[in-house]
Predict the structure.
Amino acid sequence: MKLLVSALEHSANVHLTSLKKELGDDVEFIGIFDKNLGDPIIDLQSLAIMGLVDAIKKLRFFFKLADEMVELSRDADKVLLIDSSGFHLPLAKKIKKKYPDKEIIYYILPQAWAWKKKRIPVLARTIDKLASILPFEPSYYPKEANIEYVGHPLLDQITVFKESLNETINSVAYLPGSRKSEIKRLMPVFRELINTLNVDATIVIPKHFSDQEVQELYGDLEGINISHDTHKTLYDVDFAFICSGTATLEASLIGTPFILAYKAKSLDYFIGSRLVKLYYVGLGNILLKKYNGTTLHPEFLQDTVTKANLLESFYNYNRDNFLQNSALLREYLQHGSASRVAQLIKE
C-alpha cells in the first residue's frame, strides 16, 4: 500500500514512528514526514515558523506545498493527516475536490471541541475516518461522522509508571517549555525555586538548541543537571514544575507529581482566554474533569506564577492523591493508539 502522509510537527512524527512499526513493511510512506521514516518530499526544518510575519511570508510556500501533496495523492492508495489542522483541513478539501473517492484518515484531530466548533461539521463531511485520541471527543461530532476513539499515542511511548512515591522529595525537574519566549518568561521564577528548595535539580532542554542559545535562555547552569529525555527525567525525579504543554500530560501519565506554570504574552493570553472556553489548561486536568469531575494538579497562569505561590502549592501538595488520580487517568485513556490506527488504515 502507498500511503500519502502529512506530518509537519516533531510530535506528530514521534507518533508516526510508533504507527509505522504497527503498519510493517507493506506500507510505503510518501509525502511530508521525518526523513528517518522514509524519503519525504521536503525537509521538515524548512517548515518551521517563527511569529506572524514569518507565517505571512511563507503563505505562498505552503500553498505550493499543498498543491504538490494533492498531485501526489493521485498515486496514493490512502491519505493520512496528523494534527496541524491549519494546513491539513484545507488540504483535505482540495484532495476531496479533485479525487472524491480517495480515502482520508485524520489522526490527532484539531481541538475543535475547545474552540472553532464550526470546524466539526466540516471535518465530519470531509474526512472518511476520524481517529480521536480523547475519549470524550466523539460526543461533540454528529452521529453520521465516522469518528472513533483509538487510544492515546503517549501510551505507545510511555511504558513505565510510578506505583509508589518516595517519602521525601529529593529531586525536582524543571521544564520551562520548548519555545524561546516561554523559557525566557519562566526561567527567572524557576531559578528562584531552584535556589530556595536546594534539592537535586534537573532542567530538561530541547536537543536542537545550540550552546549559545542554551546560555542565552537558561543562564549559568553550574550545579544543575541537564537532560534531553523528558520521559526518563520525569520518571526519575520526585517532583516537577512544568510549562503548559505535552509534558504536563506525560507527567500525569507517568505518575510524577507536578505544578503547571505558564506565562504567555499579555495580548496572546487575553485573546486566547476569550477564544477558548476552558476552565483548565493542563490536558490531564481537562481529561480527569471529563472522566470523574475531579482535577489532577495545580495550575498557575500569568501573574499568579510567582515564587511565593509555587512554593506554597509545593509545600501543601497531596502527592498520594495525585498518584491515585494518575492511575485513574490511565484507566480512562485505556491504551495506546498506534495499533488501532494501523487497523483503520489497512481496512
Q: What stands out?
A: The chain has 15 helices and twelve strands. The two ends are 11 Å apart (CA to CA). Residues 180-197 form the longest helix (18 residues). The chain has a mean pLDDT of 91.
